[in-house]
Amino acid sequence: MTIFAKIIAGEIPAERLYEDEHVVAFRDINPQAPVHVLVVPRKPLISVAHADAEDAELLGRLLLAAARVARELGLEPGGYRLVTNIGDQGGQSVYHLHVHLLGGRQMSWPPG
Ligand code: AMP
Questions:
Q1: Is the shortest distance between the CB of 55 and ligand 1 below 6 Å?
Q2: How many CB atoms lie under 10 A from the CB of residue 24?
Q3: Handedness of CA 83, 3, 7, 95 (dihedral sign)
Q4: Core-most of 19, 25, 30, 91, by most CB within 10 Å?
Q5: What are the beta bridge partners of residue 80?
Q6: Is 36 a catalytic residue?
Q7: Prediction pTM value
Q8: Mutate to test the pocket of ligand 1, among 28, 39, 92, 98 (most ligand atoms within 8 A of CB)
Q9: ∠ at Cα 49 (14, 9), nearest 5°?
């Protein structure tokens, strides 16, 4: 069981900003921007690379929830970044699919 599964189950605390039947959004414990939120599916998918066609709607829900949280936190119209890390070389450290919502400062490109 990953740490995110424990957060979803309410076994360890997190600052939840949004949740519904399919997804949960909570603040990252080690923020890399003034706003840093993680949006995760309740379904314990490892990453986008482990999703298949039956997860198509869920993946859409993740992005829509991230956009909703961004809007509610006042990140429009300035903008923000959504990113999902996949595997070791992609920088993934928690193996439960999550979308990072980063905002509140100017983002640079390319990421490190
Ligand atoms: P990644 O490296 O893309 O897998 O991102 C994992 C993220 O989870 C990191 O940004 C961590 O700071 C964050 N994280 C780890 N443990 C917790 C926790 N208990 N509550 C909130 N965020 C966490």
A1: no
A2: 21
A3: positive
A4: 25
A5: 103
A6: no
A7: 0.98
A8: 28
A9: 25
